Amino acid sequence: MNSPIRNRKGFTLIELLTVIAIIGILAAVLFPGIQGVMRSAKKNSALNKVRSIGQAYVNWSGGTRNIGTGAWSSGKTTTTSTSGYAAILADGASLDSGELWFVDADLAAEAITVIPKTVITKTGTTVALSAAWTTAIGQGKPAWNTYTPTSRSLAGSTNTPFAWSRGLKTDGTWPAAGSGDADSIWGIEGGHICYGDGHVAFVKDTTTTGSDYFQKATDGSASASYVDAIPATAALCTLN
C-alpha cells in the first residue's frame, strides 16, 4: 500500500531575506547598547581597582608615613616608578595583586601576554618584583599615574589626588586613547581620579565650573590642575 505523498514546503528566498533583514536591524539597534553596557562594566571594574589601591595606601600610611622619592629595593619605601609603588603597597599593605594595575579597556594592556597575578616575590625577608610583573611591564603600561613624594597629610583629603587614569594633562583634560605614557585609557570620555580619602570619581575633565576636583597645596583654593594639588617637589612616577 502506497503512503500518501506529502508536499513539504520550505522557506522561500523572500522569506529568508526578510528574516535576515530583521536580524540585521535588531543587531544594529541592540549592538551599541550592548557595547555601552560592557564599557560601563569595565569602567566600574577600573574604579574598584584604583579604589582598592587608594584604600591600601590610606591604611598603610595612617597619616604618619608616606612614599618618598628614590630608588626602590627590598625594604624601602621610596620609588620613582609605578613598579616600585606597587611593590611598596604589596609588601607593606598586602596589596599583592598585579591585576589591579591594569585595566581591560586599556589599549596598553592588549599587548601584555599574561596579566600578572602578583607584584612581588619574597625569599625570607627579601622582596623582589615578580617575573610575571616584570614581563608585563616590559610589554605594556600600567593604567594608573602615581607620584612621589606623597604627603603625610594626603590620607583623608577629599581634594588631593592619590592616583589617576594614565595620561591626565596639566590642563585638566585627558588625551586620546592609546598605549603610550601620555595616552589615556578612555580617551576624551575622561578618567578616574582617586583621592586621599579613598573615594574615586570618573571625571570628563577637571575644568568643569563649580566642581572643585583639586585643591591647591599652597592656599587650599580650587584648581583645575593636579600639579597644584600635589607637593611642589613631586613628580609623576615613570610607568615601568
Write structural notes for this entry.
With 240 residues, the protein is α+β, with helices and mostly antiparallel strands. Helix content is 29%, strand content 13%. It is built from three helices and ten strands. The longest helix has 49 residues, at 13-61. The protein starts with 12 loop residues before the first helix and ends with a strand.
Task: List its traits.
3 helices, two-stranded antiparallel sheet, alpha+beta, 240 residues, globular, single chain
Identify the strand order in the major beta sheet: 3-5-6-7
| Mean pLDDT over all positions | 90
The helical percent reads 25-40%
Could you give the order of the helices and strands? HHEEHEEEEEEEE
| Multimerization state | single chain
How far the N terminus sits from the C terminus, by CA atoms, comes to 84 Å
Rg, nearest Å: 24 Å
Tell me what portion of residues adopts beta-strand conformation. 5-15%
Helix segment tally: 3
Shape: globular
Structural class call reads: alpha+beta
